[in-house]
Amino acid sequence: MHLAFDMSFTHTDGRWRLPGGWAGRTFPDLKMYAEMALIAERARLDMLFFGDGTGIPDTWQGSPDGAVRWGVGWPRQDMSPYIAALAQLTTGLGFGLTYSSTFMHPFYVARLLTSLNHISDGRIAFNVVASSRRADAANYGYDELMAHDQRYTRMNEFMDVCLGLWRSVTPEAIVMDPETGQFADPKQVHQLHHHGEHFDVRGPLSAAPADVVRPVLVQAGASPEGIAASAHFADLVFAQGGSIAAHVQHRAALDAELTRQGRRPDEVGVMWSKDVIVAETEEVAQHRRSQLLDIWTPEMVAVQLSNGAGFDLATLPDRFPLGEIGERIAKATGSKSGHFNRLIAEYGVDHVMTKDELFEEGRDRISGYSGVMAGTPEAIADHLEEAFEATGSNGGFMLSSHGAMPRALADIADLLVPELQRRGLFRREYEGSTLAENLLGKHMRDIENTTLVGREVGV
């Protein structure tokens, strides 16, 4: 199996004050990330993964004050400069970077990721997201959210443009003949001439071609439109946690869509999100799990739940049927709330809940308390092994931890990874030098030639 560590929220949501965290260092100190990168490489993890959002949560009571007051989903940096620095400290570890296809322009993103692939010697993954939060949209000049289906239409076109740009300058383009003085072969540089619904891009890409043609492409949509987008371009799918039965269902839907789009299901692995706290004893693990509830104030819960739903939960009546509120949220945002979907699946559409009950239940979930796997290395390895085998042994896990950093990551490296290695489930050394070779088991040119060749993207 493959393992990555999700760094998206390691510094936010009160985790900075958990016992066992850094002493004398605060976000965004590069030394914090350097320490975690070295821990991850020591354990031979595939990559550090950085999710992102560019707005401060402001849905609760129509203001960012609560998020700012408690550090909920805020602050965030653009992690590309950090990755450039961390790549100089490591040799095998990959790095996953997130940009929004809803707001960003494909030419800028394709050029940036090519530059990072040069700097990292091909150890970059691009997590492609469709954004669904008004706080982000407002920073890019949008008064309203783009409709859900339209976001995925734009995503597919965005990626078609990126793929075309990455192929617009071939690796053989640079000749640098000292005798003639010729620098490059014009026949190996192609204009794109893309004219689509969302983008007009002439091309070619102005960057020098990288030995690794493009980054590994990651996508995390779970809706039918999201799964279709994954099948359209992703090398790897990032899927949310939950039961093994839910994993099997998601894997089956993805396989069916891959087949429909003419791709082989075994070409695309899934990294299942798992939140873990590992300790040498069950008692210590459960004690650290219990600490998660202590750092969440009532206002933090309200801010986070409202931000996740894209709906101001302060406007809810004191009592409400879950199905009715779920429909109100879907109508307001153009997409269903994952949290309310889980509640409806668990309790039913007609179940009546009070606002206080919603926040109390939400506190258990968003703090990680109810969803985290806390236990010994053996117990957690048992679950990962079962889930891995049930979903076809294709992919692995995107591990995160609500525990204190860097201790929680060090416990994964020093306790869980050796147990997985003992079972023959995880590598002891990196197999290749690029992220594609380590994470996908193939050279990126081989992937291009087998999975995406023949797709017309304008070149």
From the alpha carbons, calculate the radius of gyration and give it in angstroms.
22 Å
The total of beta strands comes to 13
Q: Quickly name the level 1 CATH class.
A: Alpha Beta
Largest sheet: 8 strands, parallel, barrel
Averaged pLDDT: 91
Number of helices: 17
Structural class computed from helices and strand pairing: alpha/beta
CATH superfamily: Luciferase-like domain
CATH architecture: Alpha-Beta Barrel
What spatial form do the alpha-carbon principal axes imply? globular
Task: Describe the structure in your own words.
The chain has helices at residues 30-42, 65-70, 80-86, 106-120, 134-139, 148-168, 224-233, 244-260, 282-291, 298-309, 322-333, 338-347, 355-366, 377-390, 407-422, 435-440, 444-452, and strands at 2-6, 47-50, 94-100, 124-129, 194-195, 200-201, 216-219, 236-239, 269-278, 319-321, 352-354, 373-375, 395-400. It has 459 residues and is α/β, with parallel strands linked by helices. The strands form 3 sheets. An 8-stranded parallel beta barrel has the order 1-2-3-4-7-8-9-13, surrounded by 7 helices. Strands 5-6 form a two-stranded antiparallel sheet. Helix 4 crosses helix 6 (148-168) and helix 7 crosses helix 8 (244-260). The longest helix is centred in the middle third of the chain and has 21 residues, at 148-168. Residues 452-459 have low confidence and may be disordered.
